[in-house]
Specification:
7-stranded parallel beta sheet, binds nicotinamide-adenine-dinucleotide, Rossmann fold, alpha/beta, 7 strands, 9 helices
Length: 251
């Protein structure tokens, strides 16, 4: 018995990193997962690696900042299953730089993927989520939503917006049987954090700030996403779950 048996899930940005780990765990727990990514090859590779496991997977090339791509992805799910039980808004990007030099282009590049696309996917998936009867949205925020990290102003702001949006959506969507929660991961080694974590001095400093003394594994985040996606969290909505080895509570 899997914890997501017979569930249909859409995970954005699932071609790599945390999204890939979330998709893999969901499939192993019985869900059929639509693996959506701007990089169609990565999406196909992830789905192919999951073929024959659990509930199976379907690859979708989709840029969440493009309305037509999101429409196409949701239409594919509607045609195949007619409902959506779980939406994980995972796709995310960052740009580094001092706030005073931030260009409009850099600002929009981060906000378009990290915030506007979460609005778009959550809004447009609602008819399919309602058809599930009881559904769950899991949004990827970050511990950065309440910390200032140098050169990450747009990213931190976008993740605070995801937390706020999740709470607003939770209140409105409860009437439709849709729970909305968000995850706040600490540092996990993926392409997103590679530039920072490959610096030995920064690695050491960050590990010293982490009471558990290690970075997160993608599976640590996937397990938390599974909890919020599954009926184990049936009475939880509008909540943020921090998964950071204690980093955000340590001084
Ligand atoms: N890695 C961490 O330490 C960490 C910590 C906190 C929060 N997060 C959040 O978790 C999420 C996943 O991060 P990650 O570390 O796996 O990143 P990653 O860069 O390893 O993977 C992100 C994936 O999203 C895809 N993507 C990017 N833009 C897209 C778009 N417009 N449409 C569709 N797909 C797109 C990429 O192709 C990639 O496959 C992000 O929202 C990130 O902000 C990550």
């Amino acid at each position: 018995m899997g914890r997501l048996d017979n569930k249909i899930a859409l995970v954005t940005g699932a071609g790599a990193g945390l999204g890939r780990a979330i998709a893999a765990l969901f499939v192993r727990e019985g869900a059929h997962v639509f693996v959506a990514d701007i990089d169609g090859d990565e999406a196909s590779e992830t789905a192919a690696a999951l073929a024959g496991e659990g509930g199976g997977a379907t690859a979708l090339q989709a840029d969440v900042t493009v309305q037509d791509d999101v429409d196409r992805a949701l239409a594919a799910i509607d045609t195949a299953f007619g409902r959506l039980d779980v939406l994980v808004n995972n796709a995310g990007v960052t740009r580094r730089g001092d706030f005073r030099h931030l260009s409009d282009e850099e600002w929009h590049a981060v906000m378009d993927v990290n915030v506007t696309a979460v609005v778009r996917c959550s809004r447009d998936a609602l008819p399919l989520l309602r058809k599930a009867g009881s559904a769950s949205i899991v949004n990827l925020s970050s511990i950065m939503e309440r910390r200032h990290i140098r050169q990450l102003s747009p990213y931190s702001t976008s993740k605070a917006a995801v937390a706020g949006l999740s709470r607003s959506m939770a209140v409105e969507y409860a009437a439709y049987g849709v729970r909305v929660n968000y995850l706040c991961p600490g540092y996990v080694e993926t392409a997103l954090t590679d530039r920072v974590l490959r610096n030995p001095a920064i690695r050491k400093a960050l590990l010293m700030q982490t009471p558990m003394g290690r970075f997160g594994e993608p599976e640590d985040i996937a397990k938390a996403a599974l909890f919020l996606a599954s009926d184990d969290s049936a009475y939880i909505t509008g909540s943020g779950l921090t998964v950071d080895g204690g980093m955000s509570v340590a001084l």
